[in-house]
Design a protein that fits this description.
single chain; alpha+beta
Length: about 550
């Protein structure tokens, strides 16, 4: 039987980071990945590439005053740690905030990573200072998006492969953790048929062989559950979010199936907070899908009006870019699993950004000229225009009456009343005319435009939605989009997997989303965005270094 110093289960971002650290320490490492050879980077490859960092040169150049203390205040207000088992999540979270406010940027910069100079303001919260949300912009968009994040670690791994330190075995699906004398000593599973599908597309699961490999340490970095909607519904927290949606779109490929959670549990690993999850409410069906039921998220700035399925405007703080899970709970409270944006063409042109590296080819291709051409608000970026032309969830009409009729036709349930919708929009439009406003969304828009980055690139000047000069009108039907797992394998700060008694399992580590994003379920109940990729990097680094015997 082949023997290694360490086996990494999963070739996503966390797995690459762990393997890179192991290789740097001279450890003989095996990466087993159930998908094909061009899938390194996993889900992170498809991401927008945002990273949560604190008090950076990019922030300071834009006049953003951030600090470790403010970031930790925001994290605690969002996580809302309230369970005895949140001991390690809290410890891991504090260690990550120290990392994000400390060496993170310099370490990544030294490997060649760069960022768009305008820092994004995601998940703004919109309630109290000690509550959920980012008090200041912290979303650092990697130049090159998700592939740019993956590339710096894949390059290090490929260098170790060339030296004979690291071996890659694709189409190897782990089904068992081998346990000897109380310690994890290897992995076993099935060799799958060769796959000739493109990255992200669904691959086959026919078995053509078996394998078993031995190692001193095993690091599980197999990702979350977002591609397995049955498992999402099984773990759904009905007490906090309401009944699970009957209909959802998939924000992640099919292979993000959560199967390693049960496999690790069978070997004695403890899981934690599996009812904590992170899904988005601004999902649209991809008109040009890559994986089954492929959904894309609209990352909107604050201006579009948001209505539930019954045609009632969402109240504060349930505005675009403010409070993802709070809005999810509010939408599901109607008994329906969809909602609507209503906006002007001016808003769509400047405020709509679509998630995913493939939806932002100017950033992904590191094309400065294309970015400046596409993002200055004169007209919608090419990917947004494509959805306006081809997306089944998008409606454009010149009058509100025609728009509402088309919305009712698309939903098929006829729930929207034109007069009720007009009354709410007209009330909002009157607030735009005033120098001051009691409308929380209008106040939020004006606050956002005080930030130079939002004013130039993201947030339109407040204007009347029903003024024909700002048209045509646009409505977008929004679906629930599955994405991230906030619970998972229970780990400590060193990424060691714990057993049911809270003791580290010899030889077993976990990193990335399978361990609740960044290790030990460190998000708590809510995420601050940029903390998923950042958590994979942080926990993957910890796992690799600790498995190699380094601090």
């Amino acid at each position: 039987m082949e023997h290694w110093d360490a086996i990494v289960v999963g070739g996503g971002l966390a797995g690459l980071v762990a393997a890179a650290e192991l290789g740097d320490a001279g450890r003989k490492t095996l990466i087993v990945e159930q998908e094909g050879g061009d899938w390194l980077g996993g889900q992170a490859y498809w991401s927008l590439g945002g990273l949560f960092m604190v008090d950076t040169p990019e922030q300071r150049r834009l006049g953003i005053r951030d600090s470790r203390a403010l970031a930790w205040q925001d994290w605690q207000g969002s996580a809302q740690f309230d369970r005895p088992e949140d001991h390690w999540p809290r410890k891991v979270a504090e260690a990550y905030v120290d990392f994000a406010a400390g060496e993170m940027r310099a370490w990544l910069y030294g490997m060649g990573m760069r960022w768009w100079p305008v820092v994004g303001w995601a998940e703004r919260g919109g309630a109290l200072a000690h509550g959920h949300g980012n008090s200041v912009p912290r979303f650092h968009l990697t130049w090159g998006t998700g592939p740019g994040v993956v590339a710096v670690f894949e390059r290090r791994v490929r260098e170790h492969v060339a030296k004979g330190l690291t071996t890659l075995k694709f189409r190897h699906q782990v089904s068992r953790l081998v346990k000897t004398g109380g310690a994890i000593t290897g992995v076993a599973g099935e060799v799958l048929e060769p796959a000739d599908v493109a990255r992200g597309q669904q691959s086959g699961r026919n078995v053509v062989g078996e394998f078993e490999f031995a190692a001193a340490n095993v690091i599980v970095t197999s990702g979350g559950i977002g591609g397995n909607h049955d498992l999402v519904r099984e773990m759904w927290p009905t007490d906090r979010l309401g009944l699970a949606p009957k209909s959802m779109v998939a924000g992640v490929p099919h292979h993000v199936d959560g199967r390693m959670l049960a496999i690790a549990e069978k070997a004695g690993a403890a899981t934690i907070n599996k009812d904590r999850m992170w899904h988005y409410v601004e999902g649209i069906r991809n008109w040009n899908p890559i994986w089954p039921n492929h959904g894309i998220r609209i990352l909107s700035a604050p201006s579009p009006m948001w209505f539930d399925a019954l045609g009632e405007r969402l109240e504060a703080p349930f505005f675009p870019s403010y409070d993802s899970l709070g809005t999810l709970r509010r939408i599901l409270s109607t008994g329906h699993d969809y909602s609507w944006f209503v906006l002007t063409s001016k808003m769509a042109a400047k405020e709509f950004v679509l998630s995913g590296s493939e939806q932002n080819l100017d950033f992904t291709g590191k094309d400065w000229r294309a970015v400046l051409k596409n993002r200055r608000g004169g007209k919608a970026p090419p990917s947004v225009r494509a959805f306006l032309d081809h997306g089944e969830d998008f409606i454009r009409r010149d009058t509100l009456r025609d728009l509402v009729a088309a919305m009712n036709e698309l939903s098929g349930d006829g729930l929207l009343d034109h007069d009720r919708l007009r009354w709410q929009i007209e009330a909002r439009d009157r607030e735009v005319e005033a120098s001051y406003s009691k409308d929380a969304q209008i106040a939020g828009i004006r606050n956002a435009r005080r930030y130079l980055g939002d004013k130039i690139f993201r947030v339109t000047k407040p204007h009347k939605i029903l003024d024909a000069r700002n048209g045509p009108l646009i409505a977008v039907r929004l679906h629930i989009l599955t994405r991230k797992t906030l619970g998972g394998l229970h780990t400590n700060v060193d990424a060691q997997v714990l057993d049911s008694k809270g003791e580290p399992m010899p030889g077993l580590y976990a990193a990335g989303e399978v361990a609740g994003g960044g290790g030990g379920g460190y998000h708590g109940y809510n995420a601050l965005e940029g903390t998923f990729l950042g958590g994979c990097i942080f926990s993957g680094r910890n796992a690799g270094r600790r498995a190699a015997g380094r601090k």
